[in-house]
Every structure is written in C-alpha cells, then in structure tokens.
Amino acid sequence: MMSSTYPIGTANTPWGEVEKAAWLKQQQIQRSYQSDVLSQLNALQQDFDVEQYGRLDHRELVGADYPLFAVKSRCWDPAKPSVLVTGGVHGYETSGVHGALAFLRQQALSYSQHFNLLVLPCVSPWGYETINRWNPKAVDPNRSFTKQNLTIPSPAPESAQAMQYVQSVTANWLAHIDLHETTDSDNSEFRPAKAARDGTVNTNWNIPDGFYLVGDTKQPAPAFQQAIIEAVAKVTHIAEPDEQGCLIGEPLVQSGVILYDTKGAGLCAGMTDAAFVTTTEVYPDSPRSTPENCVLAQQAAICGALDYLLNQR
Q: Which SUPFAM superfamilies does this chain map to (predicted)?
C-alpha cells in the first residue's frame, strides 16, 4: 500500500542539503555505543586480537566521532579458510550487533580452530545510537559497499573504512555472514523517508513474520542457505512467503531464502569474493519473538553456516 507523505521535503523532489539537515536535526541519541558495544571488547582480548580499524569523524555533523573495531582470530593463518561476520551495518538492527558479540563470547573460540574469523560487530555506531538505518548524511551504508577508486569513493565512510580494512587482511575468504533485521519501522519510517529523499513514490511491502536469508544471485549456494535455515529453525520460526510467493517484494527461491545481486546493489555481503555469502534477517517485532530470541537466531545462523562449511571439508 502507498505510504502517507513524509513530513520533510516536497513530493517528487529529491532532498537537497536543507532537507537533509532538517532530517538530521530530528535524530536523537537513544542508546550508547560505548556502553553496549565497546565495553564488551576488553574481555575478548584474552582470546582474540581486537583491532581498531578506523574512526568515523562525525564531529561537524553531530558533535562526536566513533572508533571502529574488529575482533580477529589470534595466530591468523593465511593458509586456513577465512570467514567474515559483520553486524550493525544498519545500526538500528539491534540483534545483528548483539548477535555478533554473543557469538564472539560463546562460540567463536571453538570455531577458530578451523577458520580464521574476522568479526566487525558494529559497522555503523551512530546509526546504532540513534536507532537509524542511515548515517548522518542520510546515506544508507548497506547500499554503499561499492568498489573504491580515486575518483568514485564509497558515499558512506562506514562502508569505505570497513572495505579498506577487510581488503588489507591477507585472507582466503570462504564465507561472509552479514547480520540484519527487518522491522516494522521499515514501512513506518525508513521506506517513506527513502522515497522522500530520492523524490520517488513509496510502496510498502509486507514485513515477513520470521527469519529469512538473502543470498547472492550470482552464487546462490542453496545447500549452504538451507543449512542456515535448518539451524535457525531450531530456535525461531522461518518466514512464510506472502500471497505472491515473495518476501519484501522478491520471489522466494527456497524455504526462507530470496536473492539479491549483492555486489551490484552495493550490499555489505558483496564486499569480498567469498564463495558463500548470506545476509540474515530476523523480525524483532513479531509477537512470536523476543530480543533474546533474535540474538539466538543470529548466533544459530553463524554456527549453522560454519558447521556446513566444516562438513564440506
């Protein structure tokens, strides 16, 4: 169904700097990156290397800057297969951040015997603090993982710094699991805001009730995706397709799985050339879910992916 007019901007006219500034002025800090994320990293240093890979200088826009951290397997061995896990690319998608941290606390050490693990738990900390999809410049980091060069950099520093760091790591990338959520606020706020920003007309989609995955159209890896779905189904429900056989407007290709062109769309899951890539999507607004259950689903997805890869060796 069509959304109501967004309160910022003029219909059918893309935002300029005035509208973006008006949008930014409405954003409020609602939680703490320091307390919720950074405070957990010290304890991980006993078993992992914790590396600062960048810093987001948002002082001119919001009066703050944000250090960016990665957690890396100790004794990194380039001969071993490497797996990348990312969370908080959309900062408002809470269980992606806390699922990555919970995996690091509870399961990562045992898997690091078999894989090099690199985890970026919160790619977009300002988005985490303001419960926002975009960065302060009204740019979506998860459409900004584009190949950089000297003339066309990524439009989002969150994406650019994550890419630069991952590319600097000597690794044989086997898999990438990117942790996300689909929330009711996608229809109530973020899709209408995007249409207003871009000067287009918004048509909302049905929010899937349950967990699903977004694979890559160019390397769909159906057995890999199925293994993750089966692992997650033990802790939460899997989304059913709508009347058109779709999830978020995309056709279902197998139980709980749709496909995107990850590189073409500038998605985080497309930033490496790994053979096995997936984007998780949990639904925290479901009456059948809790925040704890959503975190468990993210952990189950990571473990299901790694167990599948171990069984293929």
A: Zn-dependent exopeptidases
